Amino acid sequence: MKGDGEVGGAPEASEQRGRSFGEEGGRLTYGSYLRLPELLAQQVPEVVPPAHDELLFITVHQAYELWFKQLLHELTAVRDAMLAGTAPGEGATAAANGAANGGAGHRETWRARQLLRRVHVIERLLVSQIDVLETMTPQDFLEFRAALAPASGFQSVQFRELEFLSGAKDAGFVARFRALTDDERERLASRLAEPSLWDAFLDLLASRALPVGDDKQVLTTLVSIARDRPHHDDLWQLAEDLLTHDELAGLWRARHVQMVERQIGTKSGTGGSTGAPYLHRRVPLRYYPLLWELRDSL
């Protein structure tokens, strides 16, 4: 007996090939799929009388948060691709044991590299987005800046998630956040507890029976990978992609502090930080210092 989706023996899939998508617009539209009415209702200026550039400020920062969401999606997948075949949190020893049982073969270094290249493109976009903000003069910003306090970019939970996931874990940030929701606090706690990209990379090295016991061993392993590209090229390329992620994050921090200085000089931040001086201290942050130190040993 033929199923309900068959006509004259042809499977339902054959009907899909003959669909006329233009006639189905009432079922799903561009606006309903992207939820544009809800999305475009979120840019709500606060200042009275209106300040022309407040809409620009809101739009740019909301766009940042959307891209942060995408970066978290991609970088989590990168981490999981490096850990594939090993349950997150098992650690390097378990990963090495898993390799003996064939677990290493399931680690998708190609997938991790593909997604990291996407991450690089997004991060370059985030750096260039600062150019849009700099079309706003300091006088324009001062028309509505006072109304922002005590809100601050420091309070971006997703940005801290990105730092924690990348490897720069600092529980002190959670304590300094103001007015965290229960969901936000739980997300940050999860990022602190779960493996970072660097943890996953070390697990991957251990799965190849490469020593990763301490920083000295890791550095020695990285040197051996760099000097034996025929056998370890996928690990070398992945390390380079991680380094590019680190480099672009540093480029964004440096570009961001320049923008802040251009807008407000050395004034305190609206969230209570020292503003540009605080941001300058964050510029030298590196997620993977051993990948940078490796250059000294080549």
What does this molecule look like?
- Helices cover 62% and strands 0% of the residues.
- The chain has helices at residues 12-17, 30-34, 36-40, 54-83, 91-100, 109-133, 138-142, 157-166, 172-176, 182-193, 197-207, 215-227, 229-264, 276-282, 289-293.
- Helix 12 (215-227) packs across helix 13 (229-264).
- The protein is globular and about 65 Å long.
- The N and C termini lie far apart (70 Å).
- Residues 88-105 have low confidence and may be disordered.
Estimate the global geometry from the Cα principal axes. globular
**Structural class by secondary-structure content:** mainly alpha
What share of the residues does DSSP label as strand, in percent?
under 5%
DSSP helix count? 15
* Poorly predicted sequence stretches spanning 5 or more consecutive residues: 88-105
Number of strands: 0
Q: Work out the radius of gyration.
A: 24 Å
* Distance between the first and last residues' Cα: 70 Å
Main sheet characteristics:
none
Mean pLDDT, nearest integer? 85
State the share of residues found in helices, binned by percent. 55-70%
Order of helices and strands: HHHHHHHHHHHHHHH
